[in-house]
Amino acid sequence: MEHQIVQDASIAEVPVAGPTITARDVNVFYGEKQALFDVSVDINRNSVTSFIGPSGCGKSTFLRCINRMNDTIPICRVTGDIRLDGENIYDTDLDVVELRARVGMVFQKPNPFPKSIYENVAYGPRIHGLTRSKKELDELVESCLEKAGLLKEVHDRLDEPGTGLSGGQQQRLCIARAIATRPEVILMDEPCSALDPIATAKVEELMDELKANYTIIIVTHSMQQAARVSQRTAFFHLGKLVEVGDTRQIFTNPRNKRTQDYITGRFG
Amino acid sequence: MTIEATSGIEHHASRLNDPAKLKTRYASEARFRAYGIIALGIALAFLAGLFFSIISNGWSAFLQSEYRLDIYLDPAEIDPEGKRDVTRFGLADYTKMARAALSKAIDLPEKQDRAMKRDLKELLSRAVDVQIRDTVVADPSLIGKTVPIWLLAAGDVDSLLKGAIDRNVPEERRQLNNRQLQWVDKLAADSVLQKRFNSGLFTFGASSQPESSGLAVALIGSFFMMLTVALLAVPIGVAAAAYLEEFAPKSFWTDVIEVNINNLAAVPSIVFGLLGLAVFINFAGLPRSASIVGGLVLTLMTLPTIIIATRAAIRAVPPSIREAALGVGASKIQTLFHHTLPLAFPGIMTGTIVGLVQALGETAPLLMIGMVAFVVDIPTTATEPATALPVQIYMWATSAERGFVERTAGATIVLLGFLFVMNAAAVYLRRKFERKW
């Protein structure tokens, strides 16, 4: 709850609290092929950080290192050091299940469970035993839907399947599901690429509200989106982190030639 | 340049509109469609022929000729000492009582020569003895009374009533002589002899007489085997498939296992019978002809089918669902049991039922483990000797009597009925649990 107190200040460009995530010299290999080269980056607390770069540049790969989703790929190997609040997340003692509750994820394609809207949100808290009673769980589900800006649209049909919602609603349901485990960090892997502009606008608005309580990292192909929603931007190219900085600076005054070429549309 | 480009386009356009080319394409499509319809027609015709032949031969097996006779349960014969001793009941000559009642029904004189007695006896099934005895044993208070009992007619009488015996055949080559024909006609006219629903088909065990043989042993044997297969093959198969799909590291050994599972599905079933004979009977010392052994052999045979179907069903669950579950912090096991398996359930069910249907119709491996036996007593446990439906069909098919031919087709109808019900269940379950995402 401490970071909630500092969050008002953290909207400012300079983070008041220290970084939530610090990554140092992260290398990722898919079998023989190296996908990421010595990535080192700090992610600020209670702000939105966007990862941009052309397809195959490693931004999604890096994102999936942060909640160790890459573990599910047998041939994937990660070296280096990623710390969440100073704790090494690749430590053998660390429980990956608990890590994923602390680092929620929203995927490119909305992927609600083929269960009711209520069950979709309640699933995470239930398996982690976060609530003691049915009433508490009901309240948690409602508050998560509320935070995801979905409650008004679905409050009278929580028993209906989540897969019956529209694409944008489904994605917001997935966001509600992600925040139901009370994470510190939310990873979003191109969350709007399957949505229409109106649904996209809603999700972007939501990110803006959520950053008060959560650290958000978003992978996006849309530079406009990165510019709109994020405070900091990291540019990846060919598996390397080319440049990271304040979004305004990256888009107006990039230090690196390649960044400049990319944002001006010369390649990508 | 321009002219060339234009002519190129024109050439292209003319090829598109070439009427001859269009005609050939339409013709070839029509031809292909015709081949498909012909193939389908041939398949359907064969299927219709099969069903017609089985049903026309077999429907009469569900009817059985029986006499309704008033039997005088003579105390002097059944229980001369008046002790009501059940073991003594078995010594009485019930056939004589049945013959007396039959002769009364035909209005024959009391005094009969040996030939007439033999002719009369031939009209009754040999099982009437047991039928009357069972009635007496069930209720000894009937002794001394005259009670109406339905008694089985002899196989030849049954065949005659069903039109399978030609009356125009000369007497010496006919199964029933002229006098017997006359009697049968009179009994039928008086409604003493009737065709009734053949409940014996489902309640009798093996017998050398067609009229007193039934499917009971085979039905119970098949039931025990299906139970064994369902209890063993489903959990083992689903667990193996789930491990291979979701947990097993991709390595040389998992590849070897995968190839071998696929090969096992194609192994001739008789080989599984040999394996069962060697392992379960010779090595493990399980009883021969027992349905538990049959069930174990069929389990081995069904496992590859269930594993392959379950793996396909698990693979068909979109990976995004697994990612979603893992993403909120579900463990691998939770992801499997809460999401993947429930979503794969319809496919698993279908595969399982297909496997069970295969096992239900399997004959060859059961012959190897001695389930092709003459079992009279109805088994109550899976370790007692039993047969199976397809084996019973095979055994009846090798008997010559008209009654057995009819029963062969009748048993086939029963087997097809079970297969149909199981397939319908598979379709129903798939429809019911199918979810869209």
Helices and strands in order, then pairings?
The complex is a heterodimer of chains A (268) and B (437).
Chain A: H1 2-10, E1 21-30, E2 33-43, E3 48-52, H2 59-66, E4 76-84, E5 87-88, H3 96-102, E6 103-106, H4 117-128, H5 134-147, H6 151-154, H7 167-179, E7 185-189, H8 197-210, E8 215-219, H9 223-229, E9 232-237, E10 240-246, H10 247-252, H11 257-263
Parallel strand pairs in A: 3-8, 3-9, 6-7, 7-8
Antiparallel strand pairs in A: 1-2, 1-4, 4-5, 9-10
Chain B: H1 2-17, H2 19-58, E1 63-72, H3 75-78, H4 86-89, H5 94-106, H6 114-123, H7 128-138, E2 146-152, H8 155-161, H9 178-189, E3 193-197, H10 200-203, H11 216-247, H12 252-264, H13 269-283, H14 291-315, H15 319-327, H16 332-360, H17 364-368, H18 389-397, H19 402-433
Helix pairs in contact in B: 2-19, 11-14, 11-16, 11-18, 13-14, 14-16, 15-16, 16-19, 18-19
Query: Tell me, what is the CATH class of the largest domain in chain B?
Result: Mainly Alpha
Q: CATH-wise, what's the superfamily of chain A?
A: P-loop containing nucleotide triphosphate hydrolases
The strands making up the biggest β-sheet of chain A line up spatially as: 6-7-8-3-9-10
Oligomer status:
heterodimer
Please report which band the strand proportion of chain B falls in: under 5%, 5-15%, 15-25%, 25-35%, 35-45% or over 45%.
5-15%
Q: What structural category do the secondary elements of chain A indicate?
A: alpha/beta
